Structure formats: structure tokens, C-alpha cells
Amino acid sequence: MDYQKILQSIQRDIEPLKSEGQQADYIPALAAVNPDQWGICINTLDNKQYTLGDSAVPFSLQSITKVFALAMALSLEGDNLWTRMGKEPSGTAFNSLIQLELEKGKPRNPFINSGALVMADVLVERLPNPEAAFIGLARDLSGCPSIDYNFEVARSEHSVAYLNTAIANLLKYHGNIHGDIDRVLRFYFMMCSIEMNCQQLAHAFLAFADHRKPFDHAGFQLTSSQVKRMNAIMQTCGFYDEAGEFSYLVGLPGKSGVGGGIAAVFPGQYSVAVWSPRLNAKGNSVMGMKSLELLTTHSRQSIF
Amino acid sequence: MDYQKILQSIQRDIEPLKSEGQQADYIPALAAVNPDQWGICINTLDNKQYTLGDSAVPFSLQSITKVFALAMALSLEGDNLWTRMGKEPSGTAFNSLIQLELEKGKPRNPFINSGALVMADVLVERLPNPEAAFIGLARDLSGCPSIDYNFEVARSEHSVAYLNTAIANLLKYHGNIHGDIDRVLRFYFMMCSIEMNCQQLAHAFLAFADHRKPFDHAGFQLTSSQVKRMNAIMQTCGFYDEAGEFSYLVGLPGKSGVGGGIAAVFPGQYSVAVWSPRLNAKGNSVMGMKSLELLTTHSRQSIF
Amino acid sequence: MDYQKILQSIQRDIEPLKSEGQQADYIPALAAVNPDQWGICINTLDNKQYTLGDSAVPFSLQSITKVFALAMALSLEGDNLWTRMGKEPSGTAFNSLIQLELEKGKPRNPFINSGALVMADVLVERLPNPEAAFIGLARDLSGCPSIDYNFEVARSEHSVAYLNTAIANLLKYHGNIHGDIDRVLRFYFMMCSIEMNCQQLAHAFLAFADHRKPFDHAGFQLTSSQVKRMNAIMQTCGFYDEAGEFSYLVGLPGKSGVGGGIAAVFPGQYSVAVWSPRLNAKGNSVMGMKSLELLTTHSRQSIF
Amino acid sequence: MDYQKILQSIQRDIEPLKSEGQQADYIPALAAVNPDQWGICINTLDNKQYTLGDSAVPFSLQSITKVFALAMALSLEGDNLWTRMGKEPSGTAFNSLIQLELEKGKPRNPFINSGALVMADVLVERLPNPEAAFIGLARDLSGCPSIDYNFEVARSEHSVAYLNTAIANLLKYHGNIHGDIDRVLRFYFMMCSIEMNCQQLAHAFLAFADHRKPFDHAGFQLTSSQVKRMNAIMQTCGFYDEAGEFSYLVGLPGKSGVGGGIAAVFPGQYSVAVWSPRLNAKGNSVMGMKSLELLTTHSRQSIF
Fold it and tell me: Is residue D184 part of a domain?
């Protein structure tokens, strides 16, 4: 498969979309990003990288880091994790309080904000230094020891985090946050603030595409079956209330972030990261989604 | 892969679950089924069948037929179909009116009742004899010309169909049923009433597992890409509000029915049908789901 | 109190509103009404009538008849009626299915459509000829034996009654309609179709303003306490999701209808009927509501 | 009217209910109250007091103070207040986030928690020392300069206020809290913590029963029409999702608190305060509600 050629045809085909959508602007650091960027990187299981565009420009991973959080939480808790959250698609926006109230503080899945806050609580409770452990995992997965938090972004998000604070308090009310709310929120926004470029992110997701040996990174272990099941959750819950659309158009498990990044995996073949800041109304990168749709269409390969 | 041996180990492993769950009993015909049955059949792409248990006993397909309806509706309407319904998981029970009212009569996906009623309306509107066309497709897919509707089941369901009648009227109110409500409901229940055994059902789903050539059955055509996308919808929406759980445990696209059947596909490899009448609280076959979980676990093969 | 003078000042003050709002047009008979009409009639307990404007023009009572239905149902069932519905404000639109589904088929109160359908079911079940009994009560209350159903309106509403049919089916699903759905709907629309003019309607509501002796009309009896409690329900539930607004601005128990009529009572003093076809976004008569606000403001009399 | 005799018959008639219900126990100070208490006080417009039972025992007013907050907010803002909240019954529990999210941060009415938090924000914004002004009004209305906050109760409630903190953050997210969230919450819980006994509370509510002259207390003015409209809001919204029930059984405008108190008014006649700590499932005092039902039944006087 000539992935480089496919990437070139993708670049050509997405050209008409280059002004569609709006970048996230709820904090200054995200609003300041040049929206006219697009980068992509495919990392095959035999460790070849195919890149195009702004694939070396770092961006804010935001919700993509929820996948790393799930890997850690699942490694620490095993299936006990599911006593505190579900693994069903939410059918509503990622930050809705309605479902959480109706379901008495049990988040629908780990990839909506409420679920990720519960995971943050798990990590704060179980780890002596969750920030160190988390960045350690991100560095190990990406193969890049210079990966780091963006403290300015974390602080900035925390300062306007009214909705997430509402969610965290509702969780606490239902007993589904054990620790201090502010501590949990602080760690949550630290996780979100990690920056990588497409090359680093594609490398980091290789661990979820490769089932030849168990996951064993920075001290966190998962069986191949657990990793496959993480992919299943990405497939059904990775794109907010657009999971069905992504599954339909792309046909790969993946996770998006409001920074404009998307990471996805074709199990047994490759991982892929794409980034472009302009988002559609559901909060997913316009050119990112289209790039991945074209990737599976041109390569005629998807999990279906 | 020695599928026969895997089926035997499945049969052994599900033994402890044999009294769990309750069969559907909202109509006499379903209540009268002996609940202590279990059958399974794998049909590989090279057309070998592996069977065990009550795989030759016919049962009521019920919602599994929504997959055939989608094949027909997509063949007739193409992507226009999505102007009348979404392709997102619903996050709520299959027969909920709440989401339908909030979203102004646009069903979340084709596999909840409201979506299937809209598909029934499409077929009634587009086909001179929808009943004949539908059973023609079911016969062609199953390779079995004796497949038929169960008129008694259809009539019986229609007579107590208060909730589906409520849904159909709400759809009509929002202009999303064009034809006569009673006509649409009658056809809807006819579709649900079709009976197959596991061997026939596995054969029928081969068409969704095989992407080597386009879908072309009983006059209805779909591209391979369209069939793959149907699989994507099965993956995210095929199990009511348990789609995430099925995806997590089994890792195959599939569709369940309240008669206790489940059909699933491993694209490029096989289709599988399993049947056992006792249902869990979400309306999915207890032993059916467990059988498929064991199948992908023992074979170490899933789409993830 | 010089009510005639107050009516004249009301007529002057509402002039600027005369083109505001839209009349109901979901059936031809309502769409055909000349919207530029306004009539009012006050009927005091000592049986003096004060009228102005188009107070002798008959109009479709629509939901105002739910008050008569409640009088009959309460007379027949007593407090048993409240096992089948509540008496709380709904907080949502009059025809919402959401609350009814969440609360498992128990309507919030007798004045939303679902509650009125349950009352219709009660009357159909308890009375040999509900249509005859109902019109008998309407004639007795209005003191006018020529009052009648408008069969054309009833048939016309029934033919497009998708939402009410959805509600009736949902009620039946939850066991809260005992009789035949179509029979109940037919009677429901017959009730709604009754026509009166403001003079007749004000007279009919005298029975709810007068607590000096028990209610005893056309064979239906209620204690004074029961009549007062009906007023309480009108106060909290009589104006769909605008009950609070009406209570705030007017301060009288009352009931509105989509035909543009409003009937209200000042217990111990008078009843009042006002009519003007143009409705606000909540389905209540614009000039009707304003007229009653001005009535209690100018007379400095309300229940508060 | 021999109110003393009526109070005695009430005391006799409520005896069988004395063990029904559960007192609030979410903070130690409320859990420590002896639940076997009951007191009542009627204060007529000619300033006679009729008392019985534990009418001199102070208790925590809790949500009853929302009436004082509304008087102050309405005095400061006039009808501008309604741009930030509605005046419709909520149809849901007093602390629900669902409606608030669906209605984009605009509380249904001033007497649910979200509405009271917005009023607290108004008072914090408009007054240099809201705590001093508020207790000043409470002292003036009750005619008792020793009335005070219970600082321990306020601090204790604030420390477990997860749900109210969630609500406040959701309001802030929608721009409907202008000030600092913690400052607003602190004032909110101070208001709730005020203690009075039934005699003081009945006296304080006289101001809402008496329309002979405008409201003018501690520097806050309201017209008689505004006071009547406050009564209308108490009538439709004063008892959480039991407003209809209270209106039906009692027929007076009033407001309850989770401390077991209820204050109500019969406009032009009297105010009444009753207190008993055991609450029904909706959070209203069991013996308190029954006492008021018996009061209007025995006196044959209600607003209806």
C-alpha cells in the first residue's frame, strides 16, 4: 500500500474544505493558533512513518488524552472501573448534565467529560504523583521524552471551567468523585493540556493498533484483549455525539480533541494522527474527519 | 481455525447461564416458545457451515430484519435516506419517544423502532408490493425459498402495538411518515415476523461479511462501501442501549432481535447466527451474547 | 363596582394589541374564523351580566371544556380519579409526550391533553351515553339548551390528530386507557368541539364561582369543597406552560382554549369569559389574557 | 371566626400523623432537631395572634427565606428581574439541573434553588452589604430585632453543597451569575440559615397578607400589586413539585422550607406559620401541610 501517495491525494481532495469550521476559542491559547494548518502522519506496525503537511507542529491534545487516561485507569482498576461508569455511547453532547442527573452520577462512558473526571479521580486516588505518572506514559508512548504539559493552557481552562466544575460537583454529590473536587479538576486540565505533533501522536497510538504483544508502558500493563476493548470504546464513544457518523464514514476506532486533532487505529496495520484546528458544530476537526474518510476510502481498508 | 471445536467449547462454557433471563412474552406466539433452546451457526466466506445445538429450529427474527430493511432502503434511496433519520447511537431504549420528540421526529438511527418505521414508510412508498419484495430479498439472502412471514405473529403484534402506534403517529405529526399509518405498521410487523433458523440466518448475513463483490440480491444493489457502512451502523446501533457493551465484549458488527436471535459478521471472514430465547434486561439474548463473546475470545479474532 | 365602565376601559386599553398573535389554523374550521374579534362578559353571583364587543358570537371552546369534563369525572370518581393522573403543573407544553413517558403514563394533571384523554376514558367507561351526558351538562351550566357540538370541527380535528393519537396509544400502553382508543379519541374531540359565546360561557362558569350551595347540574354533584379544589387546579394548571404568568398577571383561576376563549372565576364574586382568536406562542389568546389582567388591575380585586 | 378553637381541633386531628415522614439530616444541625415538635401561629390583619404547640421554638427557615429574597430583588430590580428567571412552576424537583440545562441557564422561578441563587447574585451585586440588609429586612418583618443567622448551619450547608455548587456553576456558564460563585453561595446559605419561631414567622408574613398599604420595610418598597403578584408566585411555585397538591388541599399561597416550616397567607385576613420537622418525600412538612389543609377546611375560607 503506497500510503504516501494516498496522503498526497487526500491533501488535494480536502483543499475545498480549508475554510470550513471554527477553531476553539474559549481560551486565549487555543484562539491564538493559526487555523490554516493541516498535518497528518501514518505509523505502520512495522514502524514506517508517512507524513504530510504540518505534521511536526505541536498542538493541544485535549480530549485525545482521555485514551491515555483510560489505559492507566483500566490498568489500575481492571473491570472494577465499570462500576463507576458505563461504556455506552451517550447520544448527547459531551458535556451534558442531563444524562448524568438522570443516571444518578454514573457517566455513560469514559470519553465524555464526566467519565474522564471520574478517571481523573481514580488516578488521583491511586497514584502518589498522578501528573508525573501521566506525562511519563505520554512520553513513553510517543517515544519522545520532551513531551510536556502546557501549564498556561491548563490554568487558563481551569479558570473558565464552569461547566466541568458543575459536572464534578454533580459527580461528587452522587459519591462518584472520592477526592477533592479542585484537585481532580486541576489534574483533569493538566492531562488535557499535553501537546504533541502528528508524528508523536501517531507513534503514541501504535500501542493501541498492535495486538502482537501485551501493552506495557511506563509501568502500566494491559492484555491484548483489554487493548482491543479500548478500541471498541473508541469506536462507539470516541467522537461525542458524532461517533456514528465517524464510524460510518471512516470505519476506524479513534478519538478526537477540541484542539483539532484526531488519532485513530487500524488494528494490525497502522495508527494515524491528523490535525487541523477548524471544527464542525460537533467539535470535531472538519479536515481531520474528511482526511480519515478519504484514507479508508482510498486504501479500501477499514475494520468493516 | 477449528470453528467446530470453538463452538463446542462455547456450548460448554455457557451452560451455567441456561436459566438466566426471560423470554419475550408480550404476544402468545413468542411466549409459547420453549426457552431452553440454543443454536449457533458460523458461515465462512468460503461457504463452510459450522453448526451446533438447535441451529435448525426456526425462530422469529424480529428486529434482525431491520438489517434487510436498511439494505433495501439504502439501495432505493442512497444517502437521501439520511435526510429522514440519523446514524448515531440513541443512548436510550429502542422504543423511547423522548428523543424522537426532542429531535422533532427524526429518528436517531435505522435500528430503533422509529427509524425502522420510517424505513417501512420508504419501502411502502417506493415499491408496488413491499411485502413481496421484502420476502424475496430474505429468501435470496438466506438461499432458502421456503422462508416466509408468520402471519399470526404479525397480526398478534399489531393488535397490541400501542407503543409503536404512538411512535408512528409522532413521526406522522412531524411529517416523517408519508403514507398511511396503518399500512406502514402492517408492513413493519410483517417484516418482524419472518422466521429463519440459525443456518439460514448465518447464510443471509454472509452478504454483509463479504466485500469481494458488490451486494446484488433480488434486484437490490449496494456498493461494497455501502455494505461496509451498514456494518458500521450495526456496530454502533445494533443492540439498542447495549451497543457499547456488545462492541466491548464481542467486537463484531451485529443485530439482535427480541425473539432471541443475534446475527453478526466478521468482515472478510464469516457471518454467524446464534439463538436462545431468554433475554437480558436490555432485550438481548443472554446466551447469544455470551456465545459471541466467547467466539471472538477463543478465536482471538475481532474487528479490533 | 362599575364593571361596565371597567369593560369599556379594557376595550380601549387593548386596542394596540389587536393585530398581535396568530389564530389556530390546524383545521379549516378554526382557520376560517375572522381573527379581528373580541368579546367579553362578566356574570356576577347576583346574576347580572356585563358584556362588550363580540360577546354574542359563538366560538369553539376547545380545551375550556376540560373543566366540564373534570366536573363530571370528579363527580363520578371522587378522589379515585387521582390514582390515574396528578394535579401538578406540567412545566412543559400541553401536548408533550416526554413527561408522560418518564412518568409511565400518568398524566401530570387533568388539563393537559393526556389528562383529558384519561378523563374521556373515564366518562366513556362510566356513562352509557357520554356524548349525551356531556352536552346535557354544558346546556345546563350555560342555561342554554341550544348549545351543541360542532360535528364538522370534531371530525376535522380527529382526522389530523397524530399527536393526540400518539398520546392515547402511550396511555394505553401504560394501561391508563381502559376502553377502545378510537372511541375515546372520538369523544375527546366531540367535547372540544362545543361552541358557546361569551355570555353563555360566563354563565356556565358561574357554577365554579359560587360556593353558597353544592354543585348539582344535569345529574352531576360536587361539594363546595370539590368545586374550590377544581378552582385550585385551574389556578396551577389552566394555562399550559403559562399558568404562572397568568396567575402573576391576572390572579384568577381560569382555563383557556385554542379557539381563543378564556373563562375565569373570582370566587364569591363573578365569572368572566373573554374571547379573541389571535393566540400567543403558548396558545393563549393575546387580547383575552390582557383583558383579564386589566380587569383585576382596574377592579383591584383578585384572589391574592 | 374562633381561630383558637380551630387550632385545637387541628392539633387533635393531626395526632395520627405524628410519626410520619423523615426530618432533614444532610447536615448535623438539622439532624439534631427533636422531630416530635409541632407549632402553629395565626396572625390576623388586626394583629391578633393565635398560637398552639411549640410556636415559640425557633427553627431553620431554609427556603422560606426565598420569599424575603424575592421581596428585596423585586424591590431593587422591578420587572427586570424576569429577564433572568421565569415565574412558571418547574414540574420537577427543586434542585434539578435538567430543566436548567435545557432552558440555557434561565431558572423556571425564584423559588427553586437555581432561581434563588440568581436572586442572591442580584443582591450581592446591588447591595454594599447584602448580609446586613437581608437580616435587617427579616428583623423588620418579624418585628423582632434578635432574629439572626445561624452561622454554624450556613457553614455546614456550604461544606456539602455539591448540588447547589453544580447549579451555580451551570448558571455562571450561561452568564446568569455575574459575581463570584463562592461569594454568591456563601450569601445564599446565610439567608437559608435564618431562624425564627412560628410567632415571628407569622408576623413576618403579615406583610404579604395585607394589601391596605404598600410594602415598605427596612428600606425596601413594593406596590400592593407587586405583593399580590408575589403571592401568585407562592401559589404556583411555593412547594417544589407539590405546588399543585398544596394548592388543591390548602388553597392558600405559601412557602415551605426543608427545616419543616411553612408560612402561608390568606390575603386580607391573616398570615399563618406552622412547623414540624418530619418531611414527606417531596420535602414538605407532613404535619405542617395537614395543619393548613385542616385550617382552610375548618374555617371554610380559602382563596378559591
Answer: yes
